[in-house]
Amino acid sequence: MRINFDEISYGGPRKTYCRICRRKLTRVVRESMTISPFNKNPDGSVRSREEVSQAVLAKLKESEIALMLNGVVCSKCEPEEDTHGK
Ligand SMILES: [Zn+2]
């Protein structure tokens, strides 16, 4: 059995940088939430479509700020794993 709840999703490509080599990069940031009886406001009331939409946008904003502040590590700077095995 599968119940489909409406999902609200926002996001898209955002500019960021590699925090190691400072190369400019683009990363896709996306946040989504479903409208369901389980998606409630802090006061316990079920979120309306508009409230879910606002909550997703707030989450997206946080993710965008974190991305801008922290940057990412590009594939060239990612430490290679499995090279220190004994
Ligand atoms: Zn890099």
Question: What do you see in this structure?
Answer:
The protein is of the alpha+beta class and 86 residues long. The protein has one domain (6-84). Helices cover 26% and strands 26% of the residues. Strands 1-2 form a two-stranded antiparallel ribbon. It binds zinc ion. Residues 18, 20-21, 23, 74, 76-77 line the site of zinc ion.
Task: Summarize the entry for a quick read.
This protein has one helix spanning 49-70, and strands spanning 7-17, 24-34.
Strand composition percent:
25-35%
Q: The biggest beta sheet, please?
A: 2 strands, antiparallel
Count of beta strands: 2
In whole angstroms, the N-to-C terminal distance is 49 Å
Q: Roughly how many Å is the radius of gyration?
A: 18 Å
Number of domains as seen in the coordinates? 1
User: What's the shape?
Assistant: elongated
DSSP helical segment count? 1
Distinct ligands, ions and cofactors found in the model? zinc ion
Question: Which spans of ≥5 residues are poorly predicted at pLDDT below 50?
Answer: none
As laid out across the biggest beta sheet, the strand order is: 1-2
Share of helical residues: 25-40%
